[in-house]
Amino acid sequence: MPLDQTDRFVQFRRELHRFPDVSGHEVDTQKRIKSFVSQFNPVASWEVGGTGLLLQYGPGNTGPVTLIRADIDALPIQEVNTFGHKSQIDGVSHKCGHDGHTAILARLASLLAENPVANGRVYLLFQPAEETGAGAAAVLNDPAFADITPDRAFALHNLPGFQQGVIVCKPGPFTASVLSMIVTFTGYVSHSAEPEKGRNPAYVMADFTLRSRTLQQPADQADDFALITPIYTTMGEKSYGISAGYGEVHLTLRTRNAKRMEALTAELLALLTELSTGTGIDVATSYTEAFFANENDPDAFAQIKQSALKLGYAFVEKQEPFKWGEDFGLFTQKYKGAMFGIGNGEDSPALHNDDYDFNDNLIEPAAQLFLDLIAVAHG
To answer: Which residues form a coiled coil (predicted)?
Structure first.
C-alpha cells in the first residue's frame, strides 16, 4: 500500500486523539468518524447506541453475517505526553487506544470498498461507551440493531507489554467479569463529644473493607480467581464537632466468569449482614459498570489463529484470561465470536496510564487480519 495511503489512517487516528470524548458523549467523535468513512461507500449506515455508528458492506439478504466492532470513547485522564497530537481537551485523553481501534476499523472499511463483499453482509460497528460498560447494551437495545444477527462477531484490543504486532488469543474466557459494588452505611449524627448518642458507620466500614480482603483469590492462574479492589470511600464532613452518620465504600470486583461473580457478591452481602447486625447502621448495596466475561467461541478462536498464521503474524495462545473487563463480552454472551489482542510494544506504557499512546504501526496489520477473517467467512 502506498505510504500516503497508510498516512491518512495514522492522521485520522491522531485527529481522534487530539479531540477525545468521554463515554456517552462521543458526539464530535461520531461526526469525525462519519465524515471520514463516508468516502469508503458503505451500502448503508446508521447511528446506533446514541453516539455510535454502524456501517454495512455487502448487499446480500442471504449468506453469512459478520460483525466487527471497535470502541471509540476516551477516558477522564489528563494526558502528560507532549507530542504533536496530544489531547486538546483538558482532563480527557485516549489512554486505552480506542482511537487506534477506530482507525483500524476505518482502514477495514477502505479495504472492503476495494474488495467488495459478494456473499452475505459485513457490519462495522463503531461503539460508544465501552469504558463504562454501557455502550454494548445501548447498541444491542437499539431498534436499528434489532434485525442484525451476526453469525460471527469479532473485536480486538491493543496490549501494552506484548511484542509489537503479536496476536494474543485463547478459547473460552478472554477477559474477566467485572462489577462495581457501591455500599452505603446510614446511621445518624451526634456531637463528637457524645458519639454514643449517634450511629457512626466508621468501624463497620473499616471492618468491611479489611474483611473483604479475605474473600479474594488474586492468583491469575486460579480457577476461582477473585480480585476485590477498593476504589472510593467517603464519610461525614470536615466538621470536627460532629460524629459522622453516613458513609460509602465502593469496590470493583473481578472474576473469571458470571457464576464466580454471583458467589463473590453473595459472600460480600453475607459479610455485610454479619458486620452490621445489632449496630443500628442501615446498609444498602447497588451495582454499576458491569462487564460480562468475553467468552471466545472455540471455532472463532481457531479462525483467528489460522488467519494470523496465514498472514505471517506471531501468535500467542494465552493460558489465563486478562483481569480487565471489556463490554464486548455482552456480544459474546449473545453471539458466537471472539476477541483477540494485538501487541502494542513491550515498552509501551500500560493501559489507563497518563503517558500511554496507541502504536500506529498496528493499524494496517490489524485491519488485514479482520479482512482475512471476513474473506474466510464470505469467500
So the answer is: none
What are 187-236's pLDDT values in tens digits? Answer: 999 999 999 999 999 999 999 999 999 999 999 889 899 999 999 999 99
In a 13 Å sphere around the CA of 223, the CA atoms on its Cβ side amount to 0
CA-CA distance, 367 to 109, in Å (whole number)? Answer: 9
pLDDT digits (tens, 9 = 90+) for 80-105: 999 999 999 999 999 999 999 999 99
Strand 337-345 to strand 152-160: parallel, antiparallel, or no bridges (unpaired)? parallel
Contacts of 74 (CB under 8 A, 6+ apart): 20, 21, 22, 87, 92, 93, 94, 95, 96, 98, 99, 131
Cell numbers given for 220: 491469575
List C-alpha distances in Å: 195 to 171, 174, 198, 202: 56, 50, 5, 11
Annotated binding site for Mn(2+): 96, 98, 131, 157, 352
Strands (E) located in the chain: 44-48, 52-57, 65-71, 121-127, 152-160, 167-169, 172-173, 177-186, 190-191, 226-235, 242-243, 246-255, 282-291, 295-296, 315-317, 337-345
Residue 91's alpha-carbon distances to 80, 187, 371, in angstroms, are: 10, 36, 36
The C-alpha atoms of residue 220 and residue 222 are separated, in whole angstroms, by 6
> Which grid cell sits at 292?
460480562
Q: Which residues are documented as binding site?
A: 96, 98, 131, 157, 352
Per-chain mean pLDDT for the chain: 96
* Distance (Å) of CA 32 to CA 20, 36, 51, 106, 299: 11, 6, 11, 11, 35
Count CB-CB contacts under 10 A for residue 262. 13
Rounded Cα–Cα distance for residues 17 and 318 (Å): 30
Listed in sequence order, the residues at least 6 apart from 373 whose beta carbon sits closer than 8 Å to its beta carbon are 66, 68, 152, 154, 303, 304, 307
Domains and CATH numbers, the chain: 3-174+293-378 (3.40.630.10), 177-291 (3.30.70.360)
